[in-house]
């Protein structure tokens, strides 16, 4: 079941009849960087080494993040809502005190 030599595709010359000369691009034009612009090697190290490590860290911490969110919704939010309701019911009244002392105080806070 071998193919004839005329049927085998040449991987180097993909347009043997030169039908698409206006579409000829190189690897650097599409995927890599053109020759006129070069980034330092540390940029590629960051992209190919650091970024996958950060992605693994994000995936690993997803379970802990979900646990903390569930704990917050189950415990902390109801407690703070209850405290907020409790403190919202406190009434503070201010009034002037008239006394027999010689010092006159304008306003005093009474709870």
UniProtKB/TrEMBL annotation:
GO MF entry, a single one: molecular adaptor activity
Pfam assignment, any one: Caveolin
One example of a Gene Ontology biological process annotation: caveola assembly
Keyword Oxidoreductase (UniProt): no
Family annotation (InterPro entries): Caveolin
Alphabetic keyword roster: Cell membrane, Golgi apparatus, Membrane
Membrane topology: Peripheral membrane protein
GO cellular component: caveola; Golgi membrane
Subcellular location: Cell membrane; Golgi apparatus membrane; Membrane, Caveola
Similarity field: Belongs to the caveolin family.
Role: May act as a scaffolding protein within caveolar membranes. Interacts directly with G-protein alpha subunits and can functionally regulate their activity.
Descriptive protein name: Caveolin
Organism encoding this protein: Asbolus verrucosus (Desert ironclad beetle)
